[in-house]
Structure formats: C-alpha cells, structure tokens
Amino acid sequence: MNNNSDEKKNWFKHAFAIPKDTPQYSAVEMQLINRLAGRIVQYGLTTFAIVMIDSSKPLNFLSSQLMYFFEPIVKAIFDWEDYSRFAKILEHRKSLEILLERIEYYEANYAELKELFLEDNHMKSLKDRVKDKIKSYLKKQ
Q: How many Cβ atoms from other residues are within 10 Å of residue 29's Cβ?
C-alpha cells in the first residue's frame, strides 16, 4: 500500500513538469524555421514579429493545438505542406525562442543575406524559364 502511494505521489509530483531540454529539430524543420524568419525580415516585419512572439510565448502550446484544429479548413483553402510541420514545431516551448533567435540573426545580417536571397530567386526564375522552354520544345515535337 505504501509503495503504491509513493508511486502516485511521484507521478503527481512530475505530472505537470515542463521539460527543460531544448528540442532537437530535423533539418527540414530547421529549414522551415529559417525560411519563416527570413520572410519576416524580408517583409520588414521584424519589430512587429518580435513583439507578437514575445507576448504570445505563454500560449505557445495552445497555438499549436489551434493550428491542428483548423488544419482541415486551412488545407482546404491553401495548399501549404508545411502547416502541420509548423504546428508540431510549436508544441515545444523553446520553439518560439529559436524562431526569435533566427529573426534577430537575419535582421543583423540582412544586407549580406539579401544579396544571397536575390541570387537564389534569380537562379529559381532562370531555372523556371529553362524548364518552360524545354516543355514548349517538347510540345512542338
């Protein structure tokens, strides 16, 4: 009897504990975080994003659950494959802190990264033009 009550006390003691370790994200998840942070900086929303993210940190997990709730509706309207992946990222308490760090990093190095981003977009548009030309050539034959 005493052993069982000790187990219950131990379980209850840690039932609502918040994990202190930093989550390990996959390369795809980190790429999503980096892309989001880069877009925030690119559109000049750094200050607004930092204020909003800092003020919503206590609601981090609730936000991820709301994203799961609205997922069928959002996916019916938008074709965004990273939506559920981002909801999974938000389940971790440290995720917003990591996002803030990436935003601050991109903001501090914006001039350098802007050139890389423009080169990347130029290469994408060049690839798209080449693909279009190949498709039109293949259609003619």
A: 19
Tell me which residue range forms the domain holding 121.
110-141
Taking only the tens place, the pLDDT of each residue in 32-75 is 898 889 889 888 899 999 999 999 888 888 888 888 899 888 88
5 in any annotated domain: no
Task: Please tell me the distance from the alpha carbon of residue 45 to that of residue 51, in angstroms, as a whole number.
Answer: 10
Per-residue pLDDT reduced to its tens digit, 1-27: 566 677 777 766 665 555 565 678 888
Q: Do 134 and 102 share a domain, yes or no?
A: no
Provide the number of structural domains found in the chain: 2
Task: Name which of 84, 87, 65 is nearest 75 in CA terms.
Answer: 84
Same domain, 139 and 102: no
